[in-house]
Amino acid sequence: MVGLSDSAVHAVSGAAGGCIAMAVSRAFTVTYPLVNLSTRSQVEAKTKKESTRAAALKVIQRDGIAGLYDGLSSSLVGIAVTNGIYYLCFEEARALVLRSRNKSKGALSMAESILVSAFAGAATSILSNPIWVVNTRQTVRTTVSPDAATGSTKKVVEKRRGIIQTILDILSTEGPAAFFHGLGPALILVSNPILQFTLFEQLKNLIIRRRALRLTKGASIPPLTDLDFFLLGAVTKLFATSVTYPYLTVKARMQAGNAEGKSYASAFDGLRKIVAQEGARGLYKGIGPKLTQSVATAALLFLAKEKIYIATRKALVKTVVKAAA
């Protein structure tokens, strides 16, 4: 249709939906500061546990209100790229599976949903990892270095840098390989969208089947509402993030390039060292603000993506009709 495949429409709507979700979050100054605080908490390994309010006040005292938005620009880029790649790969893989069954439409089974999500998630993690390394460095802005005078380590706060400056700094100090720090746990975290999208598909199909049972014979099944997509996005993200959060902590430390993260040989080594040094609680630092941010953003994303997808398809249909007239 006008040279634009259904998968491409999903990719565009997914990317745009992600940007809208983050932009709305920024406008209301709610969700991005929460992920900012969560990332800082994850990386600062040996700090005492503090409330979200106390953490926010500490950042504001040191860096001002702007400190709560460190890394916002690269996060917007990351959200757009990540969702665009994911939806493109997911829909292409989904279409391939359906074609193998000689179908153009239909629902995926649970096993098929897991397989398709795994492929899309792995491709997305590899291609988007450099962006999230840049985002983590912009957000945290601290390094841990040895103190020659005391023999201990000290935290150094770096100046605020833009995306290009951060990229150049990483290249000059650590080389291109640094852009793939944390890729190990990032690949394991492919299970996050697998859990989320598989649960989303199954819950969506369940809702449709239950509503179909209530209809009279021959009546068409009404489409899911905006509220349906909003709630499905929120519930599925809450579940997926709660299960996979420890790997988010390991990934953040490895991508931040601090002393702790650099010592992790692998994702599992990171989990082991965190538990040994900080206890199981160390794996869940910052989970409160992260869950709030993730659930709110996912709910907005699913709602925005679906509305953009429908609007895009309608616009393409009108274009084809006009061209044929």
From TrEMBL:
Entry's localization field: Peroxisome membrane
Per the record, membrane topology reads: Multi-pass membrane protein
Give me the Solcar repeat coordinates as residue ranges: 9-96, 108-206, 224-311
**Does the record's keyword annotation contain Transport?**
yes
Does this UniProt record's set of keywords contain Transport?
yes
Top-level taxon of origin: Eukaryota
Task: Give a GO cellular-component term.
Answer: peroxisomal membrane
Q: Which residues form the signal peptide?
A: none
Check the record and name the Pfam families matching this protein: Mito_carr
Tell me a Gene Ontology molecular-function term this record carries: FMN transmembrane transporter activity
Question: Which keywords annotate this record?
Answer: Membrane, Peroxisome, Repeat, Transmembrane, Transmembrane helix, Transport
The family database entries (SUPFAM superfamilies) matched by this protein are listed as: Mitochondrial carrier
Gene3D superfamilies assigned to the protein according to its UniProt record, in alphabetical order: Mitochondrial carrier domain
Q: Which InterPro entries match?
A: MCP_dom_sf (IPR023395), MCP_transmembrane (IPR018108), Mito/Peroxisomal_Carrier (IPR052217)
Family recorded in the similarity comment: Belongs to the mitochondrial carrier (TC 2.A.29) family.
Which PANTHER family does UniProt cross-reference here?
A: PEROXISOMAL MEMBRANE PROTEIN PMP34 (PTHR45939:SF5), PEROXISOMAL MEMBRANE PROTEIN PMP34-RELATED (PTHR45939)
What is the name of this protein? Peroxisomal membrane protein
Q: Highest lineage ranks of the organism?
A: Eukaryota, Fungi, Dikarya, Basidiomycota, Pucciniomycotina
